[in-house]
């Protein structure tokens, strides 16, 4: 391992050059005009994985190719599946970039380009680590599988299908993903929990056409009025969700977790300034971090109905719509919440309204026990390289592909970000800190060894 | 008067021809491409009023001309101001017209064309009546002023300005307007009350940019959630408006009015089928007609915020908006309601939201005492011609120009529609029943005589 680490430290220049080569490829999955570049990035990843010494396949799909690699010669050792994606978000608005998004530029120790942190830079940490092991030791301490997709930014359709039908081929004990952030500069983190999600759309339909609100107002239920009353009934003024039984299955935060979050020194004032609100607010009795990481929420994501132009218009629109998502926490069932939501909304629907509820696919929250073997291995690996104890955090968002990994592979997910919170993911001037890129490669190499330990 | 009536009955063919000539002019005020036709219609009306024997002026304005006429030789008699408009709504969608909108076509006793009932046909009833009087008797029983505008369909800007600065010139005891409907076929009506209005827009602003609802959800007030809770607080489940003091100044319906409305035999089932709802609903304790005519309402006219496309999106939008109008009834003050609205919404605004309320111009409700001289005269005139007692009705909508008439001229408004509820106003296949056109002319001639009576 020491020799692997020394080798990695000697290759910094090449690692940066290779990352820049990948970042130069404009692999925007959302825009078909970039399709040749998406293909080029897939080929780049294929070549990299193959040169590392893995059996490698470029799997054609209906959409963008998957790159699958494997090295399965560590008898009796666990199997680690490394996941990443080679596609990137669209770069616009272009005028806000200091240097062009697909011309990587190093400034102040950071490399700036679209995809620098999400996910090319972070993905490359693991590919370089695997390559270093095989180069130096001609072996890996664990069995390694790699799956890299090219459409994470547009819904992961191909890998989702592939997982459903090729679970055996991808079977693993651990899934390692780096597509997120450390706690802060020089403070690595392991994300041991992510929230689930269940999205809905509520359509309140009333009159068969838009009506004049003067002539008809007062005699028919206005769908927009009905919608706001149904939507307002979901959460009370204390931030508590009002669906009957909503909190029944919620796994409460442990005292240890609450102490740990409180000790992180989360900068509330800085956070408030970042989001630009005059006051933070959420479910009473919980801190901001607890609310974001470990408490369920109900957010209206879209409202529409009637006249949206300038000035007033005296109309009763024939329909009004709301899009709503609930974030779920461990042990809450999307199906049970969907049933409770439907029942609640129907019970709060005023007379004279035809109610339609659209149910979208949800996903459960995930929580890895903090004393699991994977978490313990990751803790040791990160502490060895960063020389500081990593913090255990959760993530407020949902990562749908994780649900598929867990569902089809039954593996433990290790989410270890090497990005930073100010990396401008999905925004202009996306960057990755090169110091963390290199520490990420070293950590990944170390993690493979730690995961091999009994 | 008998001779005037006989003369009118002898001129049916000419009256229809003249109406068709005016309907052929595509005087669409909303579309500048029709500007020459708007001008042509103004000239047509000018010629008609002048040939009738009134002193006539075509008043140029910043927008479309006003036609003003007067005959002021009935000493000691009251003065009647006749109002109408020569502009029409756009005719589209053209493909839904059985015959082209500006090629008047008579079918089943109706004349079909854009503007047939709104307002060219109804306006012409009064111009023909004045002309008949002066032709037959060389005098009018009352002093008559006429003001016809060319932009009623787009906000009446010119006449509003003119009224504010020329109140003396237009001073009158009665204002006669026909721009609405009878109660039904062969059942004339006098509209003695119209509701007022006060419109608002509420903007709830939260984060300084759209946020990911997974990462940030639970820690900041979502403007869309805040908006629905503020909006839902306006009306309770019994249809009662919750602004403190909202009903304090409301003039209650009299027992006589309630009996009268109940006796009209309003077809609830037909109305429900017309608007296409599975159930009618409104303020508890009132009938549908009472709710539409004489009770205040609160309708959300527009909702917007966040994602409105297909499928879900995990966003907390930085702002959400609602447009709201209250319909007011006699004695409610738009200013007091605006103050109560502002106070109520502010009190219901959750933490962390920057609230902006836009106040648009409102108008008071109008109510003419049913025993007023004008109403009594109109009753006699309509009964003489239609041979049935006219019904006294109210109107749920607001007619902003009426507020200006009352404010600047202090006159009593007589709103006597000669249209029918199924005239397709503002819709394809607009029509006017020719029988009512002629009865309207006779009624108008009779009304002038009845208004002269002490």
UniProtKB/TrEMBL annotation, chains A, B:
Leading EC class: hydrolase
GO terms, biological process: proteolysis
GO MF annotation, one: succinyl-diaminopimelate desuccinylase activity
Keywords: Hydrolase, Metal-binding, Protease
Protein EC: 3.5.1.18
CDD domains for this protein: M20_dipept_like
Residue ranges occupied by any Peptidase M20 dimerisation domain in the UniProt entry: 192-351
Keyword Metal-binding included in the entry's annotation: yes
Protein name: Succinyl-diaminopimelate desuccinylase
Gene name as annotated: dapE
């Amino acid at each position: 391992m020491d020799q692997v680490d020394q080798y990695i430290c000697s290759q910094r220049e090449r690692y940066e050059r290779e990352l820049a080569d990948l970042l130069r490829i404009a692999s925007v999955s959302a825009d078909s005009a970039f399709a040749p570049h998406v293909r080029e990035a897939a080929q780049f990843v294929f070549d990299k994985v193959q040169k590392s010494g893995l059996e490698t396949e470029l799997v054609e799909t209906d959409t963008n190719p998957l790159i699958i690699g494997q090295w399965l010669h560590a008898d009796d050792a666990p199997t680690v599946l490394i996941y990443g994606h080679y596609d990137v978000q669209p770069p616009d608005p272009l005028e806000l970039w200091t240097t062009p998004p697909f011309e990587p530029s190093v400034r102040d120790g950071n490399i700036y380009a679209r995809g620098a942190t999400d996910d090319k830079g972070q993905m490359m940490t693991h590919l370089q680590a695997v390559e270093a092991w095989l180069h130096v030791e001609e072996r890996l301490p664990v069995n390694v599988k790699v799956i890299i997709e090219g459409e994470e930014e547009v819904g992961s359709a191909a890998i989702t299908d592939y997982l459903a039908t090729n679970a055996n081929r991808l079977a693993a004990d651990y899934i390692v993903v780096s597509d997120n952030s450390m706690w802060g500069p020089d403070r690595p983190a392991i994300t041991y929990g992510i929230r689930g999600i269940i999205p809905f759309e509520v359509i309140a339909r009333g009159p068969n056409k838009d009506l004049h609100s003067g002539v008809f107002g007062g005699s028919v239920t206005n769908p927009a009025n009905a919608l706001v009353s149904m939507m307002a009934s979901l959460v009370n003024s204390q931030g508590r969700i009002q669906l009957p039984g909503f909190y029944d299955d919620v796994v409460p935060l442990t005292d240890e977790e609450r102490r740990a979050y409180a000790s992180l020194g989360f900068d509330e004032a800085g956070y408030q300034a970042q989001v630009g609100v005059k006051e933070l607010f959420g479910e009473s009795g919980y801190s901001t971090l607890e609310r974001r990481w470990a408490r369920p929420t109900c957010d209206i994501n879209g409202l529409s109905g009637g006249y949206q132009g300038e000035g007033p218009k005296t109309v009763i629109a024939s329909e009004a719509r709301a899009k709503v998502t609930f974030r779920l926490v461990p042990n809450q069932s999307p199906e049970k919440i969907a049933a409770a939501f439907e029942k609640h909304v129907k019970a709060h629907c005023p007379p004279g309204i035809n109610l339609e509820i659209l149910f979208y696919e949800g996903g459960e929250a995930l929580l890895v026990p903090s004393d699991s073997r994977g978490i313990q291995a990751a803790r040791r690996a990160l502490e060895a390289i960063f020389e500081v104890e990593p913090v255990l955090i959760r993530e407020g968002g949902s990562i749908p592909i994780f649900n598929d990994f867990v569902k089809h592979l039954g593996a433990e997910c290790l989410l270890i970000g090497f990005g930073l919170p100010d990396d401008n993911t999905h925004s202009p001037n996306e960057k990755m800190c090169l110091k963390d890129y290199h520490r990420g490669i070293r950590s990944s190499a170390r993690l493979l060894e730690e995961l091999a330990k009994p």
